[in-house]
Structure formats: structure tokens, C-alpha cells
Amino acid sequence: MLTCLNRGRSGEMSAKYLGTEIDETVKLRSELILSAIAVTTTAYFADLPSGN
Q: pLDDT tens digits, the chain, 52 residues: what are they?
């Protein structure tokens, strides 16, 4: 599950459930997304025939 971002009435961004700063939350979200892509890509290519 991704960490949630929330936009307040005046437009300021904050972490919805974590007590972290917005920069740290955005970095964490980015790292989680990139990690999920890497795992998915690795699993996908592991399932492809080797071509032999």
C-alpha cells in the first residue's frame, strides 16, 4: 500500500497518516513504486523462455 498524500483546504500537501514531512513521504512513495516495478520486471523476465 502506498503512503497517502493529502491536500488541505488552502492547498498545502501533507502525509495523510504518517508523521513525516512531504519531501520524505514523496521519496518513500517513489522508492516503493520503483521497487514494485523492479520486482515485477524481474518476475516477468524470469518467466520468459530463454530462447535455447
A: 677 888 889 988 888 887 788 888 889 889 988 998 988 887 777 766 776 5
Q: Kindly list the distances between the CA atom of residue 36 and the CA atoms of 17, 24, 43, in Å, as whole numbers in the listed order.
A: 21, 18, 11
Burial of 14 (0-12, 13-18, 19+ CB in 10 A): middle
Q: By the 8 A CB rule, do 52 and 46 touch? A: no
What pTM was computed for the model?
0.61
**Cell triple for 27:** 521519496
